[in-house]
Design goal:
Blueprint (H helix, E strand, L loop, with lengths): L1 H23 L9 H4 L7 H22 L1
């Protein structure tokens, strides 16, 4: 009998957790929040290297002008 009560309480807790999560994802006008749906895009190591090289070139150009 005690196992059945604990099991029922766990099911109720899970149901409430799902309901809370569903409510967190919806704003007052019924639309989902865009921040929760946004997917972050990563950048490759090669992309980072290209950006860094371009920035170093800009700095070198500025240092050359200053000298």
């Amino acid at each position: 009998m005690d196992i059945a009560i604990v099991s029922a309480l766990k099911e109720e807790r899970d149901r409430l957790d799902r309901a809370i999560e569903a409510l967190r994802g919806v704003t007052s006008n019924g639309r989902k929040r865009s921040i929760t749906d946004r997917k972050r895009r990563g950048i490759s190591a090669a992309g980072k290297a290209r950006i860094a090289a371009a920035q170093r070139a800009r700095w070198a150009k500025q240092r050359k002008k200053a000298a």
